[in-house]
Design brief:
Length: 399
């Protein structure tokens, strides 16, 4: 009997190609770590070098071993978590995984029920006649052309250029507001699947998305991290959070060291030190601050953002695109948190049940099945239960 499986795309079951090897990303990140540690160590007269008066020479004899051990341990932890996340499986979907998922939601490989009917269709929706790839974003409205209908365009003036630049920005904002309003008024998504992916040849579970870089569908897709060279999804999002935490700790350690510098604060220097301090010491300190502070703030922002995502069961993909661009968020608003089930349940799911490390505790290694996410349904925005609806309830709304 011939197989009923659809033809497999060459990249759907093979190794993931991100365009650059794992060694490239590892060497690049370790080089960045070495640069950060070097910039921190080069700042003169910090607690790493025993501080002391600015005119006192510093050498390995004045090195504070406790501060040096603290700095090395922090970035050793960063590299360890980087290696854990880099190259990890974010939840790449295969035909076998989707077939195993079908035993839970009762739908076939293409998202249809066993009798051939399309599973979970919205009223009036016919997926068979739709050529839209469910793993791609909903198309945005095209911007109107700025070309003149006839005649030779006049020479642009500075004010005309500003108006021309401002017009498409305003039109795109209006289009997005219109799409958001239409998505909020649309009937809720009714299926546990997205539309069939034209590349992978199956209908992936809800919240999945096809990564154009990895060339695979990823369960509970968050984003593709170019720094790590890996997708972040259902099976490694928790590991990624721990990597961000270690990275933030490393930057905090560096900042605590460079801000302890006594450069420019002690007036007891010798005439010989005045020349040295004015030409070298403060310059190195300023350059180190310029190098480290922006990266530290970015690391803190990333850590805070993904902490909020973990608490409200949200992803970067859903937060960035919103109901206007994602089909399964139809009927919701930007800040509805449609998959949230209370902070405690969200954290438990994020830290345990979704991560691949949980398999080692349950003994289910090699038998991974994507999480069955229920469609958002009707969003309750005026609930008395503020604990399970911490972002928007009867008493307050965060956005």
């Amino acid at each position: 009997m011939p197989s009923l499986r659809p033809p497999l795309h060459p990249s759907a079951g093979a190794g993931v190609s991100t365009g650059r090897s794992r060694a490239y990303h590892i060497i690049s990140y370790i080089s960045l770590v070495v640069g950060v540690v070097t910039a921190t160590a080069c700042v003169p007269h910090t607690r790493l070098w025993g501080a002391g008066a600015p005119y006192e020479p510093q050498s390995m004899a004045t090195l504070d071993r406790e501060a040096a051990a603290e700095l090395c341990a922090a970035f050793f932890l960063v590299v360890i978590f980087f290696l854990i996340v880099q190259g990890s499986d974010p939840g790449y979907l295969s035909i076998d995984a989707v077939e195993a998922f079908g035993k839970i939601d009762g739908l076939g490989l293409l998202g249809s029920e066993p009798d051939g009917r399309e599973g979970g269709n919205n009223p009036g929706e016919d997926r068979r006649d739709s050529g839209e790839d469910r793993c791609t974003l909903l198309p945005s409205a095209p911007s109107p052309s700025l070309e003149l209908e006839s005649g030779t365009p006049p020479a642009p003036t500075p004010s005309g250029i500003l108006v021309a630049m401002r017009r498409p920005i305003n039109e795109r904002a209006e289009n997005r507001r219109a799409l958001s309003a239409a998505a909020a008024a649309a009937p809720p998504h009714a299926s546990t699947r997205r539309k069939m992916c034209d590349t992978c040849h199956f209908a992936p579970p809800l919240r999945s998305h096809h990564c154009r870089v990895c060339k695979k569908c990823v369960a509970t897709f968050d984003h593709h991290c170019y720094l790590i060279g890996n997708c972040i999804g259902e099976r490694n999002h928790c590991k990624f959070w721990w990597f961000l935490s270690a990275q933030l700790l490393g930057f905090a350690t560096c900042l605590s060291i460079i801000t302890s510098s006594v450069e420019g604060y002690d007036g007891k220097h010798t005439p010989n030190y005045v020349h040295t301090a004015m030409s070298v010491g403060p310059v190195i300190t300023v350059l180190a601050n310029i190098f480290l502070w922006p990266m530290s703030l970015s690391a803190g922002l990333m850590w805070g953002t993904h902490t909020v995502f973990a608490m409200c069961n949200l992803t970067s993909f859903e937060c960035g695109k919103g109901p206007a661009r994602i089909d399964y968020l139809a009927g919701t608003r930007d800040c509805d948190m449609p998959f949230g089930r209370g902070v405690d349940n969200n954290l438990r799911t994020f830290c345990c049940f979704r991560d691949a490390a949980w398999e080692s505790f349950t003994g289910a290694v090699g038998n991974w099945v994507p999480v069955l996410w229920k469609p958002p349904g009707i969003i309750v925005r005026d609930s008395d239960d503020w604990w399970n609806h911490p972002w928007e309830n009867k008493y307050y709304a965060c956005c």
